[in-house]
Amino acid sequence: MAVTAIVVVGSGVELIFEQHARGTNIHNFGESLWWAIVTVTTVGYGHNYPVTTGGRCVAVVIMLVGDRADRGGDRHGGELPRRGTG
């Protein structure tokens, strides 16, 4: 649920940064949402990408969320720690 909220809010913030930027390829909420979903799932088709500094910062947050979700959201990289190893 939290990932969904971050994707939706992140795509809205992304659109604010990108919508009127020179050379942008994200022009509306649909394109921004598609970009955020592709980014958070780490598929990364590359058709849509941020061109502004603010948009790239949003991208980093969404990438980190996707990476964290992909690893199960734990601090062990998806692996359970072995007993007695810390």
Fold and architecture overview:
This protein has 86 residues and is mainly α. It has helices spanning 2-18, 29-40, 53-70.
Task: Please describe the structure with a list of short key phrases separated by commas or semicolons.
86 residues, mainly alpha, 3 helices
Layout of helices and strands, plus pairs?
Elements: H1 2-18, H2 29-40, H3 53-70
Helix pairs in contact: 1-2, 1-3
**What is the name of the CATH topology?**
Helix Hairpins
Largest sheet: none
Shape: elongated
Q: What number is the mean pLDDT? A: 85
Q: How many DSSP E strands?
A: 0
Quick overview:
With 86 residues, the protein is mainly α. The protein has helices at residues 2-18, 29-40, 53-70.
